[in-house]
Amino acid sequence: MKKWRKRLKRTLLFGGLAIVLLLVSSLVVEQVNTRKDLKSYTPSGKLYNVNGKNMHLYTGGQGDVTVVLASGWGTANPYIDFYPLYDKLAPHVKFAVYDRFGYGYSDTTDKKRDVDTISSEIHQLLQESGQKPPYVLVSHSLGSLETIRFAQKYPDEVQAMVMLDSGSPEFYYDGVDVPASGGFGKQLLIHTGVLRMLLTSDSILENSRATRNGLKFVPDELKAMDIKATLLKLSNANIDDELAQHQANAKIVLDHKQTFTFPFTVLTSDYFGKSEEDWTQSQAKFPSWSVQGKQVMIKDSEHYIHQFHPDLVADEILAAAKR
Question: How many angstroms separate the CA atoms of 308 and 261, rounded?
Answer without folding.
Answer: 30
